[in-house]
Write a structure and sequence with these properties.
The complex is a heterodimer of chains A (104) and B (153). Chain A has 104 residues and is α+β, with helices and mostly antiparallel strands. Chain A is 53% helix and 20% strand. Chain A has one domain: Arc Repressor Mutant, subunit A. Chain A contains 5 helices and 3 strands, in the order ααβααββα. In chain A, strands 1-3-2 form a 3-stranded antiparallel sheet. The chains are: A alpha+beta (104), B mainly alpha (153).
């Protein structure tokens, strides 16, 4: 049986963000912006979606007088990402008779 | 419906992003030189056998290395910390072994030369440690990169 793909993660921009966060303990907003090439507003919007789903935790703090924002994958976010990767691998490795689908 | 090709593209994208993270948060080459060159004054200080000299020199060295390390992680450039899952047990053991080899070789050379009556055993020991750090540090870095790439999603 092939697991279903997670529609929240599968959107290209969010897939990139989740992939980066899955490789880190935490990442700063600036780091995510530079790695993904997204604008500030686009990145904020995608992070809000992921935060609403409970997949990421956003923390705002100060280094001296400079405000910083760091983001980390939540436990449920990591579980969802791992499941999504497993579903992608299952799709790639699937036998021709299987027909997975993306949930609505 | 998701095609096999789309899934393969998504997996490739995940791999590319994670490789980018690993490459960006790696320790820069000059870091090894800082750690290595900073060791040598500690060795000279140890040769004086005077605590009022050894302790401040060692503390200043530890402070500078600690501050630069923290700066590399959270300070002057956009930061991220690599997942411990990527590093894995093998990566952690590799780092600990590297430190043990450097410290062990430094102390071994220093005590050996001291027993042989050499005038500056501490400096010679830390010089050996510094050479090891400069020579093996980048090798450790490359090995850690390979380890992290093999542990990624």
């Amino acid at each position: 049986m092939i697991d279903r793909l997670d529609p929240i993660i599968h959107a290209p921009a969010r897939l990139s963000i989740m992939a980066i966060l899955a490789a880190t303990e935490w990442a700063e907003f600036r780091f995510l912006r530079e790695e993904t090439g997204l604008s500030d507003s686009a990145l904020s919007k995608q992070l809000s979606t992921l935060e609403s789903a409970g997949y990421v935790q956003v923390r705002k703090w100060f280094l001296g007088k400079r405000p910083r924002t760091s983001v980390k994958l939540s436990r449920s976010g990591r579980t969802a990402f791992d499941a999504h990767v497993a579903a992608l691998r299952a799709l790639v490795d699937r036998v021709p008779s299987e027909s997975p689908s993306v949930p609505p | 419906m998701e095609s096999t090709q789309d899934a393969a593209s998504a997996l490739a994208e995940i791999g590319r992003r994670q490789e980018g993270v690993i490459d960006r948060v790696n320790v820069p080459g000059w870091y090894w030189w800082l750690v290595a060159v900073g060791m040598i004054p500690v060795g000279f200080a140890a040769d004086t056998k005077m605590a009022r000299i050894v302790v401040p020199v060692a503390l200043v060295y530890a402070f500078i290395v600690a501050m630069v390390s923290v700066w590399l992680i959270v300070g002057g450039r956009p930061g991220a910390r690599v997942s411990q899952q990527l590093l894995g047990p093998a990566g952690a053991v590799g780092i600990v072994l590297f430190v043990w080899v450097v410290v062990g070789a430094s102390l071994g050379v220093a005590f050996g030369l001291q027993a042989a009556g050499f005038a500056h055993p501490g400096a010679a020991g830390t010089l050996v440690g510094a050479v090891l750090v400069i020579g093996a540090g980048p090798l450790l870095r490359r090995w850690l990169r390979r380890t992290m790439l093999s542990n990624r999603a």
